[in-house]
Amino acid sequence: MSWLELSLTVRAEQQASIEAALQDLGALSITLRDADADTPDERAIFEPGVGETPLWNDIVVQALFAAGTDHAGLLHVLGDLLPELAPDQFAFRKVEDQDWTRAWMDRFKPMPFGRRLWIYPWNIEPPTDEADVVIVRLDPGLAFGTGTHPTTALCLEWLDAADLAGKMLIDYGCGSGVLAIAAIKLGAARVIGVDNDAQALAASRDNAERNGVAEKLDLYLPEHFPQMQADALVANILAGPLTDLAPQFARCLTPGGGLALSGILYGQHDELLTRYGECFDQLQIAQREDWIRISGRRKG
Q1: pTM surpassing 0.70?
Q2: Is the pLDDT of residue 47 over 70?
């Protein structure tokens, strides 16, 4: 099976109308990417929430259609719906089917984070004679979080450096469960994973079972998340939700409890530092590529 991919570069203010038009024309999926990145492989993917707008001035919109979709007919209808678009803004290519899981596995290699933590794909056997090495074996499925993204890497490095022995940690936005599982393997007595995607919770549960730590991981949708206090909290989401969740995170942590926030683009951190400075101190930032991690401790 194959698909027809339509790519067009547009201004941010055109994105909403173009996306609506593509959906009306039967697009099977629509992806937004940063048009100003140096190469297509480096373009960051953005998944806007309801009412949110893209972060970039120029956007590459990629839409997948059934393979038999008529190019000329599609261009004609788009021209009528969106007369402001020029013909050179459109590009088509055929996307062949493949074993997407196999392709991902071929690219995903063992990766170290910090002093002792390693993430291994499920298809590669880790060494058995390495002392003082903590290994998380991962099959992320369809949920975000393999360690390859800078935001996940920043959080894994923070976990590796933290003293988690016997403590309770909250992983808010747990995705594949990689942070929660790493925390347990690094000594946490229990982890509470929270995500607004039921599929992510299923992936977290599956990965925890594969790593033999499922009995120490409790998983919740946000609306079912119980009010409790933990010793540490990590949240790898986006700057907007992190701003809104600051009071809840403060309530969730014991005095002196450790905090790590990521999913923050450079330039968004100043506002978050001010926001979290109300209830947290010892605030520090770490940067990897264009992404920021903020860490600190709950005030007493």
Answers
A1: no
A2: no
